[in-house]
Amino acid sequence: MEIEDKVLRLIKSRKKGILQNELWKKAEIDRRKCSRIIDKLEKEGKIIREPETDNGTRTFRIRFLEKKEEKIRDFKLLLVDDLIEPCAGCALECIPEHCMPLTEWVLCLVDEE
Ligand code: SF4
Q: Which residue among 80, 85, 90 is best mutated to probe the pocket of ligand 1, counting the most ligand atoms within 8 A of its Cβ?
């Protein structure tokens, strides 16, 4: 969507973010449409919205969400061959020094290298 890209570009262009009450004017769209686009972008994890007061008026500061701020979920790091790291989701009473599943997984890890 062209207008959505325009809004995102405007947000991205401001290092410290842009106030929502300024954004809709710069994007040349009405407040409601701007609000809907912001909701969508926020749900998609592309921006964050923080409450702020501007000249006594409550608004939001909209910031582009940098990649480094996104949660990185690389589950491949938990895998050795096809064996998942055993502590993930483990409900056993934990004594790591005597844990066979962990020992086996670590041995697979060593073998892989
Ligand atoms: S070390 Fe063993 S017992 Fe402890 S959390 Fe990991 S898999 Fe479970």
A: 90
